[in-house]
Amino acid sequence: MPNTLADGAEVAVKGSTSTYTLSHHGDIYMCTCPAWRNQGAVISRRSCKHLRAYLGDAAEEQRVGAQAKAPAKASGRAQAVKKDSAPPVLLAHKWETDHDPTGWWMSEKLDGIRAYWDGTTFISRLGNPFSAPAWFTAALPADILDGELWVGRKLFGKTTSIVRSGAASAAWNTVTYVVFDAPNAPGAFEQRIAHARQLFERAQAPHARVLDHVACTGVAHLREELARVEQLGGEGLMLRRPGSPYEVGRSSSLLKVKTFHDAEARVIGHAPGAGKHKGRLGALICELPAGAKFNVGTGFSDAEREAPPAIGSVVTVRYQELSDDGVPRFPSYVGERVDVELPAAKPAKSAKSAKRVKDP
């Protein structure tokens, strides 16, 4: 006799060798069995023999179509997101000081690598898969999540190195997947983040957690928390508008708050070092998309000076402000980016064509 499963409910069912949990969230019916987790279908179109046995073949065929009778066997890691296209992620605007943050959700801005979990695979902002070890992803829920792969504060370069090293690296045991949204979960931000917490309460994933959020009580609270995080070596804060949906692209519902500015630049040359840095990198010669060229000579480890980012690579630099010519003041190297592409730089204006406004 077919059963029903109410939205938000879950039930334990016995399999041939284990007990699995069936659950219902919006238009998604989930099972913790390997067959459901490893399917290549999008998460709302998956089924398995346990769902069919509980809900009935007719109900499952009506819900997901003919594939409900025989879900395709996955070969290796399934790819539920097309890997040659970027995932639909939410991006932030900068917080302006005239914006009242009272009531907004506040969290630490992590200096990790953005990673979209499609239920089976980590995907970069550019749509490229990250190869994580099977033991790292084994306990992650088969749900769509948005977060960052993060090692720790001021360790962006180490995070990048580990993620680029592939699934064979034992250093993945220093990485945590920090989740800050569940894009496909129904409801506003508060319901989505609650859904994510429920997922991880069940999953008990040792290498992942949900990011903490607190309600901001005003500008003074924001500045106090920003100072605390920066003193610990953190990058800054994020503000999330209460009741906001998950929007694709840059949105004013998500704001980043930092004392310093960051920018992505393309490496166009290596300046040789002098003194204690003789024989290795002295500075990166960089170019912004707007065409401004500048040198970055601080922020490197000894290993990075010995093997600096290649010419043509994209790096993040941190600076205090831009000069009148659009050049970063006091730039410092943060790390190489594997999840960002830059457009071709605009031709720089010549001295003759550049117009200046004289001070009164």
Textual characterization of the structure:
The protein is of the alpha+beta class and 360 residues long. The chain is 18% helix and 28% strand. It contains eight helices and 19 strands. The chain has helices at residues 34-37, 49-55, 57-64, 134-137, 156-165, 189-203, 219-231, 302-306, and strands spanning 10-14, 19-25, 28-31, 90-94, 105-109, 113-117, 122-123, 129-130, 145-150, 176-181, 208-210, 214-215, 236-240, 249-257, 261-272, 281-287, 293-296, 314-319, 332-336. It has a six-stranded mixed beta sheet with strand order 8-7-6-9-10-11. A five-stranded mixed beta sheet has the order 4-14-13-5-12. Strands 17-16-15-18-19 form a five-stranded antiparallel beta sheet. Strand 13 and strand 14 form a beta hairpin. Helix 2 packs across helix 3 (57-64). The chain is globular, with a radius of gyration of 24 Å. The protein starts with 9 loop residues before the first strand and ends in a 24-residue tail after the last strand. Residues 67-84 and 349-360 have low confidence and may be disordered.
Write the layout of secondary structure elements.
Blueprint: E1 10-14, E2 19-25, E3 28-31, H1 34-37, H2 49-55, H3 57-64, E4 90-94, E5 105-109, E6 113-117, E7 122-123, E8 129-130, H4 134-137, E9 145-150, H5 156-165, E10 176-181, H6 189-203, E11 208-210, E12 214-215, H7 219-231, E13 236-240, E14 249-257, E15 261-272, E16 281-287, E17 293-296, H8 302-306, E18 314-319, E19 332-336
Parallel strand pairs: 4-14, 10-11
Antiparallel strand pairs: 1-2, 2-3, 5-12, 5-13, 6-7, 6-9, 7-8, 9-10, 13-14, 15-16, 15-18, 16-17, 18-19
